Structures are given as structure tokens and as C-alpha cells.
Amino acid sequence: MIPEGKTFDRKSARYDIGRLADILIAFANADGGTVALGIKNREYEGISLLSEQKKNDIEQIGTQRIIPSIDVAIDKKKIVNQKGKNDEIWLLSVNPADGKIYTNSRDEVYLRIGDETHKVTFEERKNLEYDKGIRVFESQAVSDAFLEDLDSDTLNQYKELYGFTGDNIWDLLFPKGLAKRVRDSNGSFSYQLSVAGVLLLAKTPTAFIPGARIRFIRYEGREAKLGTDMNVVKQVLIEGPLPKVIDRASKEVESQLRTFSSLDLKTGKFTNVPEYPKGAWLEGIVNAVTHRSYNYTGDDIRIVMFDDRLEIHSPGSLPAVVTTANIRHTHYSRNPYIARALTDFGWVREFGEGVDRIYKDMSEFFLDEPVYDVDANSVNLTLKNNIVMRSFRKNNDLESRIGSDWDSLNFIEQAAIGMAYEQGNIKTKDVLKQVENYSATSVRKALKHLTEMGILERIASAPTSPNQYYKLIK
């Protein structure tokens, strides 16, 4: 049985019709969704126990209980109920609203967040009203884009996702929000690709929506420099249908990441670790592509890599009810049709899970929490790599300075060199904190040995100075 979540709920046939309307309102104000009516305690209760009047009320729920009226599609599925009798469950579905906010008769607004129906506060409602204006952009028709402009590989993949084998591609694109139906003055209609359809499927979306691309920049060092000191190592513009853009951006980032040796202080052995957990940085890219404000046509998504951090810039502020305080567990799609399609393509995680996964993945790698810097025009995500770990990323440098002696050094000696390389200088107590289960005598002996080898230099005003420290000899 499908679990309840962002776009699905289950309710008993006897569920209060007013509260049922609130759930449909919440779905419509978010990403759309379906309520399976006639399921109680995960068992088929069925609909037949309801009176004809109650069934009629449910069928009229979109016009009688929701303001403004909304089209509620009802799919009646035949089942055998828990008593062994033929029955039905009703699947009530609504699409995401374009530029509207739906309320109940008490002028209350609801929004679906995770698997909960959330009553919107006054402040959240103001933000939602503002964001609905941005959401409309995704559904606008692009009059000068034609089927010939679509990328055949991506379109074929999209067809396969839904098992579509028909001759009229509009039959697939229109219900998914990737096309608009346009009626002329004579009453006949034709179809046009929507902004979402162009972004997802066109060969060159930037021909119609400027800024719909990713700019990848790799700098050498920890800051961007200009002029004769310019330190750009690589700069790439990534354009195309969104599924291909994400794939190419992922490959660009991965090509610049290194697998490094990190000293495991528990085992005393070096292990290979990636610079950042892939789940974290890839989720950051996918979120930017999925939720950016595409009506900000003068800006693009930027992935900027420095030695000590990875930054992902997304045009447009956080959507609606999402804030930096609740971003881990609150979800609202600014572009619901894009979000759903990228979910089906396999790029977007289960709704609401992605940002929380970034935090968890960074934590599991013992890295700093992700940093979100938000203003009125952009969301900027910064992932920092581990400074101590980075001392061992410079293996070539360490090897050139220490040579073949490195492999002959013991665990404490290797740890001390790594710390001195990154921190500049170290004290006995610093090393002792890092190497568990070793005595102060062993640490002092290791530091003395490194000094005798000419690797470390001891700095002290007196032989027994309490402020003595060690540093690498240049």
C-alpha cells in the first residue's frame, strides 16, 4: 500500500467532508495530490456504507467546499472490502494551483508539508501569495517553441517512464503540465509547450528562457582573484534539457573532486575518502535546478568550487513557507511540474527528504553543517570540507618534503606531521588529544624523533618551557 506523504493521503469513507476538503486544498496549494477514500487502518473499508447524499456531497466537494472552485478528479476503483464484498474506493485528485490560493468557506488556507496538512499562518499566507505569482511562470505557454525543438533522447526517455506509445505526444505532455491548451476565437484549440516542458525537454531551453543553465567555476585557492592574479582553473557553461544539465553538472563537479587519504585515528591507517559526500553536493545541485526562480532570466545557477568549500548559487529566494530555520523538514515546490518530472527521472528524492539528507551526509563525513545564505534574490548553499582532512589531501606535497621516510613513520609521527602541516605549529597536548590510547611519553618521543630527523623544528625559550611548540621545517 502506498505510504502517506507529500502527494498522497488515505482516509476512511466516514471522514469529515470539511476536513477532507482541507486536505485537497492543501494539495492544490502545494504540489497537487490524491486522497484515497475508503481505506481505514490500512484495510479496504469501501464506499458502499455511505448514503447517496454523502456520496453526492463528495462528488461536489470541489465546487461546494473549496474557494475558488477546483476540478477534483474522482477515479472509482473496484475492490473487495474487508467484509469480502464487492465495493469501491475513490481516488480524489487535484492538480497544483497556478497563481491561485485555495481556501475553505472560513477563508482558511492549508498547505501540504510532508505527510501533514498544515494550516497556514497570516505571515505564511502573505509569502504564499507572493510565491504563487512566481509559480505561474512554470505553466506559461511558450508560443515560439515547437515539438521540433525538443531533444529526442530526453523525450524518448520521458515516454518510456510512463510507458507512452501513442501517436499524439500532447496526450502525454498536457496532463503532466508540460503543455498548455490554447483555444482560439472559433472555439477550436491547439497545444503549446509550457515553460516547464521547454526546460525539461527542449534541446536548448536558453533560446526561450535566458539564464536556464548552470555555470561551473573552479578556483585554485580559497578566494577568487582578478586581473593578473586570476585563479580560475576551469569554467564551463552547461545548457540543455534539465535532466541532461544535472547529469553534466554532476560529472563536472566529480571530475574536479579528488579522492584523498585520511588518517583514521582509531586504526592508525590511511583510508580513501571523497572530498565531500556525493549525496550532499548532488542534492544541492538538484535542489537548485528544481526550485530556482526561472522568471529571474538575468541570472543562472552557479556552482563555484574553492579549495576549502563548494558553493551553489540559485536565483530566487526560498519559496513560500520555507525558511532557513525549517528548511530541513519543510517543502514547497515553486515548480511542481518540474519537481514531479525530475522525481520520475530519478533525480529528485522523495519530497521533503533532500535537504535533510544533505545535513545527514555532511554529519556522517564529520564535516561542518551546510550553510544557507538567503536574501531576496538568491539562495546560496555552502559545503565546507574538513580542514584537518585536507592536510592529508596534499600527499604529493608531504611526500616531496618527507620523501620515502613517510612510510617508516609510526602513527603518532604521521598524525603530528599532518597537524603541523595544516595548523602551522603544534604542542604536545595538541597531538595527545588527537591520538587516543597513546601516552604523553609516546607523543613526546615521537616529536623528538621528528625533530632529530629534521622534519620538525622545536621552538622554545628554555629547555623546559611550558610554551614550547613544533613546526615543519621549510
Automatic annotation (TrEMBL):
The GO terms describing molecular function are: helicase activity
Q: Domain Schlafen AlbA-2: where?
A: 4-120
Asked whether the UniProt record includes rRNA processing among its keywords, one would answer no
| Keywords recorded for this protein, A-Z | ATP-binding, Helicase, Hydrolase, Nucleotide-binding
InterPro entries cross-referenced by the UniProt entry? RecG_C_sf, Schlafen_AlbA_2_dom, Schlafen_AlbA_2_dom_sf
Q: Which domain of life is it from?
A: Bacteria
| Chain ranges passing through the membrane | none
Q: What's the protein called, per UniProt? A: ATP-dependent DNA helicase RecG
